[in-house]
Every structure is written in structure tokens, then in C-alpha cells.
Amino acid sequence: MATGTIKRVTDRGFGFIELAGQDDVFFHSSSLQDASFDDLRVGQQVTFDIEADPRGKGDRAANVRTS
């Protein structure tokens, strides 16, 4: 399980998580486990799993939980 910080959230239901020293990771609101998308804030700590995006666009976050 990885730990990161919410870097950006959009009004379209997705965002990006910042990982120290690594590329940002995409997440979709459907990957949230214990929070509402509307409750997420930039700078908030989260834990998550990293999985391959089935569309072939790199990695994405799954099972995102607020810390």
C-alpha cells in the first residue's frame, strides 16, 4: 500500500495523487473507499494501491482511503 497527498481534484470526478520522488498517480472517484469525492481536499494524505490502468495509460490508484 502506498501513501501520497492529494495534488489535484477536478469537478469531473477524478484527480491526481502526488508521490514523493515519483510520477503523480491518477484516481477516479469510484476508487474511494471511505470518503466522498466532494470531501477530498488538496494536501490531504491518502493511502492506496497502485494498479495498471486497463486502458493502457500507465498506473492508477485503487482502494483510496483517507488517512
Chain-averaged pLDDT = 93
By CATH reckoning, the class would read Mainly Beta
**N-to-C span:** 12 Å
How many separate domains make up the residues?
1
Shape: globular
Helical content stands at under 10%
Strand-residue proportion: over 45%
Characterise this structure.
Strands 3-2-1-4-5 form a 5-stranded antiparallel β-sheet, with no helix packed on it. It starts with a strand and ends with a strand. It has 67 residues and is mostly beta strands. Strand 1 (2-9) and strand 2 form a beta hairpin. The chain has strands at residues 2-9, 14-18, 25-28, 45-52, 59-66. The mean pLDDT is 93. It contains no helices and 5 strands. It has one domain: Nucleic acid-binding proteins (OB fold (Dihydrolipoamide Acetyltransferase, E2P)).
Short description:
The protein is mainly β.
Topology at a glance:
Elements: E1 2-9, E2 14-18, E3 25-28, E4 45-52, E5 59-66
Antiparallel strand pairs: 1-2, 1-4, 2-3, 4-5
Task: List the keywords.
five-stranded antiparallel beta sheet; OB fold (Dihydrolipoamide Acetyltransferase, E2P); mainly beta; 67 residues
